[in-house]
Amino acid sequence: MNADTETSSLVLAGPHGAGGAFPNGNGGPAGPHFFGYDEVRDPHGMTRAHWQPFYRHAPDLSGPEFTRRWRDGQRVIRENGVTYNVYGDPHGMTRPWQLDPIPFLLTPRESADLEAGLVQRGRLFERILADLYGEQRLLREGLIPTSLVYRNPRFLRPCQGIRPPLGQYLHLYAANLARAGDGSWRVISDRTQAPSGAGYALENRIVVARTLPEAFSACRVQRLATFFQTLITALRAIAPRNKDNPRVVLLTPGPYNETYFEHSYLARYLGYTLAEGGDLTVRDNRVYLKVLGDLQPVDVIFRRLDDDYCDPLELRPDSFLGVPGLMHAVRTGNVAVANAIGSGLVESPAMMAFLPQLCRRLLGEELRLASARTWWCGDPESLRYVLDNLADLVVKPAFPLRNHTIPAMDCLDTATTADRIRAMPHAFVAQERLPMSMSPTLTADGVQPRKTVLRLYLAAHGDSFDMMPGGLCRFGPSADSELVLMQAGGGSKDTWVLTDGEVNPFSLLPAKDTPIELTRGGGDVPSRAADNLFWLGRYAERAESLARLLRCILSRLSERSSAAESPELPALLRTLSAQTDGKPKGEADVLPALYNRDDPNSLTTTLHDLHGAAGLVRDRISLDMWRVVNRAARETHRDERPTYADALDDIDVTILRLAAFTGMVVESMTRTDGWRFLDLGRKIERAMHLRHLIHDTLAVPQPAENAILDAVIEVCDSRMTYRRRYLGTLRFEPVLDLVMFDESNPRSLASQLATIADDVNNLPRVTTAARGPDQRLSLAALAALQTTEVEKLATVTGGRRLELIDLLHKLGEWLPQLSNALTQQYLSHLQKSRHLSNAMTATFAPPPSVFP
């Protein structure tokens, strides 16, 4: 489900000449002219005036300097995690955003004309929506057929009679445009419920301006920040209360939505809280954001969710994405939703057939910006025309159908298409074929022409609209492609709107003289976000602990001819077994524990889980933190069979990446409740791994215990401290004291438990009258360690250190219970089950082979 998935196809009329190259860096035209409007060259083959500064100042598009710059630009896209998730794509949920470095240029005059036409169109849609959800005079007068409204599933009857704040339905409106053969623009579709792409347009601008700074400056390109300021002002204006500083949340369907990156990106850029439906609740007809230990009232919901998914009580009952009771809160005026619920009604392409007469009736004006010629098959005369000219038209569904799907009409022969239209004429529209324009696009074969569609955005401004001085230009996957869709393998371009005057330097950053109220807030962490931060910490620590253990094992395997020459290896392999799937491990299992992507416990899979958890909190971690995680997840993939030396190199790089991530957590994140849950995840996970390591290596004395003791302090990254204190003399008691009891050692078990107790004690609580179960468990674990003597744990009885085993057994029970207590008390909105190996959750039960 996505609020803005393109379902219509655009088919080109006539053959397309392959053409030659576009103008080179010197600005000279090359190659024959091709079919359709050429964005760069005029009919005489000369470079258009507004493109000349670009080609004068951009590097040679086939030269090494441009190649180097664009390679850096693509690296930024990867490292920033800019993705567009196509369902069923082999790249899964991390398909990189496809961006072309050559921009799409609009002249000042053309931009002004488009803005005037789209502003009129936005005002017209406002009047249509107000009437259809109000008096419905347009239906009574026959200006809009009743079946076009009442048969449309996007006509939401619960919205009837609801007047949105300030009477505004559309706060963000977008239109897709294509050129006719003469170069004039036509609107081919409207996006009125939750238009996507504005965030991608902003990201495109950042990358392309960085790649081509000289051309960007020379072309005098207008900035985008003013548009987003207009949007912020529009959302603030509709707040029912707290208009100076309303609480605005950006409602997302969640991380599996194809444009989730944009949702988190916009939330961070606009300063809004990113929320899913489960993060919100309705109490006494008011919407609240569920934060840790509290509920915070919400004034405005900026939704990225389809209309009918917003409220399962009154709209779509099978929706798990919305907020139960939201419609009633809207109806009582306690919360504003942008765009207004129900605004998707006018997205139907069939509406285009009636816009000219509606414009005259409602605005007293002629429609300034024409739509592609459209025929709604529910009209008998239009039906006859469509059936008579079917081969020359593009057929689309008139509106989405919930219970069955209309197949892609381009895949059917003319006779079958005609039969389907006759069976349900009201469900189809036909549009004229537009050739669209051709733009230069960088491909693997050099600069090639591609068909383009332009999406422009408008934000509400008073009773009118302001157009973004830019937009999202999309191009087809090949020169002869009939589809210009991101889902079909297309790409995007930055849109440069040029100006004849000075470029507005406005920025969303406040001016130096702007008064700012001091605050140390930031505690509005939704339970879902805290849950994801908690697991971000757990996966990060799980990956680092496993990497350090694997490095210790592999270094010994690479230095010795067999496992028999390393007496510490059996104990280390037992630890590896306990920290993965619990199955006995041999030398042959070590490399799969690092690389096997099908093993849910391998290091590669754990890093993938870490990357996924970080993606869920993109709006709450820094760009540098994201880049570190992104690189760590990519750098352990090897298609060929690696050697031990290869594996050690990969592990060293991974440990460095994870150390950088931990350093940013410690040094760069403010100590909010979200940070505490991330820290709790790290400390609980490290404590669990330390408990397993100590048990599997030290609970049973071994003949060659010095080698095992050395391996333990190596895995715990405590060799330097031990040697400084004890001059390299290995003994059981000092090793155990260092890795288990020494709170000054950040790698010790005691240090983890002390930090856990401090974090838990500082979590928000409804009452402080009595300690919660999480506090009792954390204090019990710390007290058990602090009141134990190291010497007693060293005592061997019957070939085992029984008191050490008993203490580890208690900790093995308390730590999972503490994790569960935190989840039950604070993290009640889990999105999916998290992977925990059996050994990490089960109560300690030593295998017979270890404890006969």
UniProtKB/TrEMBL annotation:
Q: Where is the composition biased (Gly residues)?
A: 16-27
Provide the protein name. Answer: Circularly permuted type 2 ATP-grasp protein
Task: Supply the InterPro entries for this chain.
Answer: ATP-dep_Glu-Cys_Ligase-2, CP_ATPgrasp_2, DUF403
Region (Disordered) spans which residues? 1-27
- The organism named in the record is Limnoglobus roseus
Q: Which residues form the DUF403 domain?
A: 526-827
Q: Where is the composition biased (Polar residues)?
A: 1-10
Top-level taxonomic group? Bacteria
Q: Which Pfam families match?
A: Alpha-E (PF04168), CP_ATPgrasp_2 (PF14403)
- Ranges of residues in domain Circularly permuted ATP-grasp type: 103-475
